[in-house]
Amino acid sequence: MRFVILVAAIVTFAIPHAWSASADGRLVSWTDGDTLRVALASRIVRVRLIGVDAPEISRGDRAARQGEQLGEDVATIVRLGQQAKAAAERLTASGTSIRVETDVQTHDRFDRLLAYVFLPDGQMVNEELVKQGWAMVLTIPPNVRYAERFVRAQQDARRHRRGLWSGSAPRRVAASQTVSVRVSLGIIVGSVVSGTTATIGLLAAHTTWRAAWFVPAFWRSMQALSSLLFGALPLLAAAAVHSGRAGTALLLVLWSAAALLIRWRPIVGLLGAFAVLAGPWASVWPMPTMRDDLSGFVYAAITDPANPSFLVFVGATLLAVGRVAAIRRRFPRLSFP
User: CA 98 to CA 32: how far, in whole Å?
Assistant: First the structure.
């Protein structure tokens, strides 16, 4: 059991690329050269392309910063932004079937879905816009899965003076391009360090949990917390189904494992729950987004009790109750270790 816990901790902290998912949808419209509206699971979702940055289509601070980066005035940046949007519309017209693929972090602070967008022929829209010269590389960890591809695409666009790079004067190399070349090594080093720290913490916790185990008040509180976590699972699963939130299935499995560990190995289980919340959960299903999904599910359940997500909630609740009853029958009185 200890070996399984340690492996799970290392995987949780050291393999960020595992937290991703994909879904099929249809392009509704382009907002600008790097943001689009997509029909996913019967609702319209705002999608921000990962790893790229197109010129702004209106004046503002971001347009001014891009002007400094490219050596152009704001008016030129806005004109290039309109051209970048037109290029994106030519590449992917409204109504086109697409596939969106998320990375480690799924939403930005504006609650836009962060994604790589693929066409039916396999082309990646993010990469193609950079290759055509209508977007620049913008690498923001931890979403670095295709960072090297974007750097190569930008180098090719600069070499052939396409799009933003078509002017006669040589442009300054974007700072993000240099960062992108080094970011993979930084992610690897950070992952190894965090995984090692988690392993040491779990080993230390395993030597101290026995003393706390025999404190009756602590034991009862851990039993109550475990029951509370299990009780929340059906509601979380139903909210995830209702919102079509990708990548939450594995999170709920890890949450269930943490709830079980809290019941039988309290200290290790608490550390596991914290690791899930602070690591993959914060990226895949941030708390503000989760609250919105829960509110949407509750409202849908009130207005339409026959909707599929509410039926999932009822079924999951009955399954959870049945499993708890089966465990209590099989282990009527758990002995202390």
Answer: 17
- Under the phi-then-psi rule, with left for phi > 0, alpha for psi from -120 to 50, and beta for the rest, what region is 306? alpha
- Kindly tell me if the per-residue pLDDT of 3 is higher than 60: no
Phi and psi, residue 156, nearest 5°: -65, -40
Residues with Cβ within 8 Å of 305's Cβ and at least 6 positions away in sequence, in order, are none
Long-range contacts of residues 324-331, Cβ cutoff 8 Å, at least 24 apart: 324/227, 324/230
Whether residue 180 is predicted with pLDDT greater than 50 in this model: the reply is: no
pTM of the prediction? 0.52
- The residue ranking higher by pLDDT, 102 or 310, is 102
CB 195: neighbour CB atoms within 10 A?
18
